[in-house]
Design brief:
alpha+beta; Sufe protein. Chain: A; three-stranded antiparallel sheet; 5 helices; globular; binds zinc ion
């Protein structure tokens, strides 16, 4: 095992034990449930979108360490981003996790997500890592459809 493997495991465990943006939003623009029956991961994503920007994001996750850590990192990175930027980041992360032919490079501001790249070695767990992101895609779509308050 290399030093970076250790570091990545630390990052994942840190987010698992102290998930960022944990909780609920009282009047969200969008609220989406995500389930991964393969592992038993369940989460609810709350989004507050105003003027095309993610003003607040909260998650309640009941799942494995990979799922919880991935959602926590995602919430941290997407908070304050525009919906367009968020969609691009989700797309990039999904390509990193699913692309088997090339190593998708991440820009420096997304380097925390490198910790999840190792999950690619375990195909069953890729769904755990992707669940929060797929739920986010649905939430962003719903937020755009919902009428402005
Ligand atoms: Zn899982």
């Amino acid at each position: 095992m290399s030093l970076s493997d250790d570091l990545y495991r630390e990052t994942i465990l840190d987010h698992y034990h102290n998930p960022r943006n944990h909780g609920a939003i009282e009047h969200p623009t969008a609220q989406v449930e995500g389930v991964n029956p393969l592992c038993g991961d369940e989460l609810t994503l709350y989004l507050s979108v105003k003027d095309g920007k993610i003003e607040d994001v909260k998650l309640t996750a009941k799942g494995c360490s990979i799922n919880t850590a991935s959602g926590s990192m995602m919430s941290e990175l997407l908070l304050g981003k525009s919906v367009d930027e968020a969609n691009e980041i989700v797309d990039l992360f999904k390509r990193m996790m699913l692309d088997k032919t090339e190593e998708v490079e991440l820009p420096e501001d997304l380097e925390d997500l490198e910790a999840l790249r190792g999950v690619k070695k375990y195909p069953v767990r890729i769904k755990c890592a992707l669940l929060p992101w797929n739920t986010m895609l649905e939430g962003l779509g719903n937020a755009l459809k919902s009428p402005a308050p």
